[in-house]
Amino acid sequence: MRKMGKLKVSIDRKISKAWIMAHETQSSTQKPKTVNEKIMESLQHPEYLPKIKALLRDKYGLDVFQYRLPYFLRRISMISKKLNTTNLFEIYNHIQKSHEGYLDFLNTLTIHVTEFFRDKSLWDYLRDELFLKILGGATGQQPTRQNPYRIWSAGCSSGQEPYSLAIMFVEAYKKYTYKSGRPMTWSLNRIKALPFQIIASDINDRILLTAQEGIYSEKTLKNADPRIIREYFTKEEDGYHISPIIKEKVTFKQLDLFKGKFPVKFHLVTCRNVVIYFTKDQQRILFKRFWDSLLPKTNMVIGKSELLPIEINKYFKLIKLSEHVYERKDFDEKGK
Ligand SMILES: C[S@@+](CC[C@H](N)C(=O)[O-])C[C@H]1O[C@@H](n2cnc3c(N)ncnc32)[C@H](O)[C@@H]1O
């Protein structure tokens, strides 16, 4: 009996060891699920995903195929939470039934996080180096009333970026007149006449209304010096109102960067924290189109966490590594 008992224990041990080994091999060969797979599993009627994409393209002209898939799926999962349904068919219906439904979708699809003077060191660089150099005529592009310095803020969200650009240009102008020994007396009319103009665009109409209103919370101004806030904003009960003169320098327009005609003849294009959600192919197309929109020897700024696709290096030269500021290379397209 004792012998039998010993034999049984040893067989059990062998079996359990074999089982553990087999199990371990199995689990190490089984790939862990990707985030995309997990999101897809949490949704009912996955066959409606391509239908949603086609609906957005065909009914509303929105080409979501140009957004990276993991990004798109994460936004779908957010929409499902907002609408309180995991059923893609219901989400499809919500988008399909009205333009409002589409705008709800677009609002969730596009991320609008922004603030005044986002990435502070960039703004110091623009005011103290780039704008000052341009105002001094160092690049042969000294702006005049007939030939103003033209800036395009592409993907401007609720307006903090284009208004920051306008304020920094005015600040650079003040420095320039001071440095050149002809300090100006500053008046609102003087600012109005300064030779620069800003076009600010975004795909999202709703966010552009907020931008046009120009009323902001204290939080979004956390990077602004108190003097800047005093000079360019008026504090009211509902928030900080941007000065009407600064507002006048910015023209907002709705524009989808995946399509349509781009505005042209710019000295500076800023497209920050926008392309990060686009596919690499779309990024290549977009940067080439920015190149087309810029005048020779002018500049482009992209976000701190964004990179130019390698193929685009032939179009732009990096001039300020830490701030992701580029200069448009000037060559005829057939050539080098
Ligand atoms: C995170 S915000 C960036 C705002 C600002 N540039 C900044 O860096 O603070 C991204 C903006 O890009 C816009 N956007 C996303 N896809 C777009 C597209 N296809 N065309 C134009 N704008 C788009 C969004 O609506 C959103 O307002």
Descriptive overview:
The protein is an alpha/beta fold and 336 residues long. The chain has two domains: 35-109; 120-328, 3-Layer(aba) Sandwich (Rossmann fold), CATH 3.40.50.150. It contains 13 helices and ten strands. The strands form two sheets. A seven-stranded mixed sheet has the order 6-2-1-7-8-10-9. β4 and β5 form a beta hairpin. α2 runs parallel beside α4 (69-82). The relative contact order is 0.10. Bound molecules: S-adenosylmethionine (SAM). S-adenosylmethionine binds next to loops.
What descriptive keywords fit this protein?
seven-stranded mixed β-sheet, 336 residues, Rossmann fold, alpha/beta, 13 helices, three-stranded antiparallel β-sheet, globular, single chain, 2 domains, 15% strand, binds S-adenosylmethionine
Radius of gyration: 27 Å
Count of the separate structural domains: 2
Give the CATH superfamily of the largest domain: Vaccinia Virus protein VP39
CATH C-level class of the largest domain is Alpha Beta
What percentage of residues falls in helices of 4 or more residues? 40-55%
Short description:
Helix content is 48%, strand content 15%.
Question: How would the blueprint of this fold be written?
Answer:
Layout: H1 2-29, H2 35-42, H3 48-60, H4 69-82, H5 88-97, H6 99-109, H7 120-135, E1 149-154, H8 160-179, H9 188-192, E2 196-202, H10 205-213, E3 215-216, H11 226-232, E4 233-236, E5 239-242, H12 244-248, E6 250-254, E7 266-271, H13 280-293, E8 294-302, E9 316-320, E10 325-328
Parallel strand pairs: 1-2, 1-7, 2-6, 7-8
Antiparallel strand pairs: 3-5, 4-5, 8-10, 9-10
Bound molecules: S-adenosylmethionine.
